[in-house]
Amino acid sequence: MNRTEILVSGFGGQGVVLLGQILSTAAVYEELFTTMLISHGTETRGGYVRSQIVLSGSPIDSPVVETPDYFCAMSKSAYTKFGSLVQHGTIIFDPGYIEPIQGAGVQHSPLPARDIAVKELGREIFANIIFLGRLGQQLQGAISKESFLKALAARIPKLIEQNSRAFELGYTFEI
């Protein structure tokens, strides 16, 4: 696997860090090299949160995501702040929060994760796992669905059934 850069950002309480941890754990199960950096505002909840994940088949020289291959924009402020970093990748965004600005070389992929979570699982808390499922679908050549589900169960031992369903909803989502 070549170096793949993934940026996930939203506001505090959306599970941005947890999504990155599960993704990195799944990559380790596939014997990939992975790094993760997190940053956040000073607010306890509601401020911005960002996870930078790098995946590679060889050692990683820098953990910094400079030109993301994938950007999960979970809030409008995240999209506004980091969307311009994506030059030739895919931006997965929740249209309930974001109206995308089309750019050359950038693919926008809407994923109404919050609405799906509420409709299918009764709680918007599962939206981050729906985003994870969509990333899993995008990364299926490098990380198996089984590794994602194993990592999900390892990181969140409670609510395994609901989280597995949320992952599947994102994984099978079609525009």
From TrEMBL:
- InterPro entries registered for this protein in UniProt: 2-oxoglutarate_synth_KorC, Pyrv/ketoisovalerate_OxRed_cat, Pyrv_flavodox_OxRed_cen
Keywords for this protein:
Oxidoreductase
Q: Does the keyword Phosphoprotein apply?
A: no
UniProt KW Oxidoreductase keyword = yes
The GO terms describing molecular function are: oxidoreductase activity, acting on the aldehyde or oxo group of donors
**A Pfam entry, by short name:** POR
Please state every residue range assigned to the domain named Pyruvate/ketoisovalerate oxidoreductase catalytic.
12-171
What protein does this entry describe?
2-oxoacid:ferredoxin oxidoreductase, gamma subunit
Organism of origin: uncultured Sporomusa sp
